[in-house]
Amino acid sequence: MNPVPSATLDDLHRRIGRSLLRFQQIESALKFALPYMHPEGGRRGLEALKAYREQIRTKPLGEVIRALQESTPIPEGFFTKTLQEVVDARNAFVHHLFEQPGIDLMTPTVLTDLARYLDEQYEQTAELFEFSRALCGATPLALHHNNPGAYPEIETHRAPLEASLPSVTWAEEEDLSPTTAESKP
After folding, report:
1. Cα 178 to Cα 53, 143, 163, 181, distances in angstroms
2. Which residue in 4, 21, 37, 160 could disulfide with 71, CB within 3.0 to 4.6 Å?
């Protein structure tokens, strides 16, 4: 990580706002997509989807991520670890910002130390942020793919959504192997 130049209070406020928005974007994207994926949501029909959406609307990030883990076959390992790290980073940011190692409010370098911590945390959340954006964009595309006539309004947005996501080739309907969608290089 590059050294942080001497930070001002305005710099620190911008970084705090940037981090807060990043966590909110992740949480909002997951709350958008989760009702379509969770067994208590869209898999049971439209009314269940609406009820589940309302149920998770006020849940904190940790509970939303646990629900995501329940709804998808995410293998133990790196991604599960990343999900928990983001929850822990968000909790540290929101509840314990001034208690982090290396942050001492009584030193003249406190602004620079806080700026460094916030920059590192922002980078730490980049992977889940990109995943949540892709998941949010892929959800309507998957709905359209599985039932093209049911969601005509999606067609208007399909090309821009596809352009913003990594290239994906949809498998043929009869191909039910574990690799039903493969990423292109």
Report:
1. 28, 19, 25, 8
2. 37
Q: Residue 2 is which amino acid?
A: N
**How many beta carbons lie within 10 A of that of residue 52, not counting itself?**
23
Tell me the three state secondary structure of residue 116: helix
> In the chain, which ranges are E strands?
168-170, 181-183
pTM over 0.85: no
Amino acid at 162: E
CA distance 37 to 83: 17
